[in-house]
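Morning!

This is the sequence you dropped in the shared folder:
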Amino acid sequence: MVTTHLSNSNSAATDFDSPLLIPNIQSLPPDVWRPTKHLSKPEPPPPPPDVNPAIEAAAMAAGMDGKTLLKKTKPRRTVDYFGPMGRWLWMRKLAPSSGYVPRLRPAAPYIIDLLPPAAYPNNSATSLCTKFVHTSTNKVRGPVNCVTWTPTARRVLTGSTSGEFTLWNGLTFNFETILQAHDTAIRTFEFNHSGSFLASADQGGIVKYFQENMNCVFSYQAHPSAIRGLSFSPNDNRFVTGSDDSTLKIWAFEESREERTLTGHGWDVRCVQWHPSKGLLASGSKDNLIKFWDPRTGTCLTTLHQHKNTIQALAFSPYLDGNYLAAGSRDQSLSVFDIRAMKELRMYRGHKREVCSVAWHPIHAILASGGSEGDLLYWDLHSPTSTANVPSGSLSFNAVIPSEPRATLSQAHDSNIWSLAFHPLGHLLVSASNDHTTRFWSRERPGDSSSVFSGGGEKPPEAGDGEGEDDEAWGDAMLPGLGVPDPYDNSFGGIDPSSETSYRTMVQGNANTDLKDSDMHDDFDALPGFRETGMDSHQQSTAFPSYGESFPGMQTNSGSGFPGRDPVYPKQSRWGT
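The structure's back. Tokens below.
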């Protein structure tokens, strides 16, 4: 009995104590590479150290000198175009074919393959600036009436109701300097095509000339009422102004002399544009009419009656020889006219209220429009028209079918969008609004999960403590025109002595003014050219191709990529034809 029990126990022990079968794993040969570094997961960067209470108390006791110690370091967004531009120029030399472009994929690693809009001539979707980047506000808040890029495309210039010019950095979007330019609200301004001068007009009908360093060189009374529009001729010898006195005036720029007065509108002239390459003027008024003028004789060539309310904005297309004219009206519609046939080509309806501003993309047939409800809409001139809401059999042969917006940004601003300006390369858009802010918009990036754009639009996020605002860049003792010196200009920040007398009264009277009426509208024609001056002249001797070579297929009669984008503008006739 005992023997049997032991034998059974031994068999049980053998079943449980027997080793498990392990697969025969062969060791790797000695010549196979094995990682030796960075074997652990990457750790996030350490948080910034807190300010020592003793240092903080000393800074508070030091007053203004200690404010820099209390300022927290925050990363600032930037949209740099040097990388994509250099990659595109490098790829044009090493690409297997002339039209080769890497295919974009919806993933973050392919962000580096995103090239400038000029690299995608047949894909206008790469030019939709729907990603919110930054909000810039002045310390003394007020409606921003007009915005434009400087000729070098490095900075953004805005004009406010308080009569101030504000310069913002075009890469980091931070404040650079401010100066008191006018005694009354700035209504419109524009750089000439050569980029050497800036002409601005205000509520009192005064026109001023400014140099590149913002030094006021001359001013005179041009109209008895507010000037709403200003535009230069193609050869920069003349410019035209439109005023609330229902007239247009053509001025000799160098002599500051009135050459001709154009009369024909029955109400205030709200906008005026000079054709980019021809002797042709287009004006819009509160009488709901768009008139075309011959600047040689001062006669009205034709009149368009398509809109049923005030014409708020006009803009000639910067490509295709300026054959298309966009017009925004208070009847909540946006029209595109073909000036060769003087017919309406497209009619866009998408705004809930009146259209306040329009801007053409410099590369693609994209049109951006801003409304008084704060919406920012993008329209594609080559997009198919929609017939969903049109009854069958009700269309005539020449009927203009409404088109749908290509992209919509609802509540891009909290109030009227008075002015829009695309970067000359087309990758950025700047909007100026009645809500006292200037906002920057960029293109979407592949695989970007932080995008604020959606199909129906979305309101940009609110700026946090110091984020998106540049009040911290101002000192309490800073005077208008004596801001941060310009690192590229020798003498920047000139101020008009005659405008300092009423500055304090003007700021206090306009800081709390809520101007939501359509009278705040300002015309916009700000697609400045490239012109390297001052310390930037060394870039002209580099091996980079010219502007015309960088944008093939978009040549003009002058040989440059766009009219006026070269330092030396070609000689033309007296009237710019």
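Headline: The longest strand covers residues 131-137.

More detail when I'm at my desk.
O.
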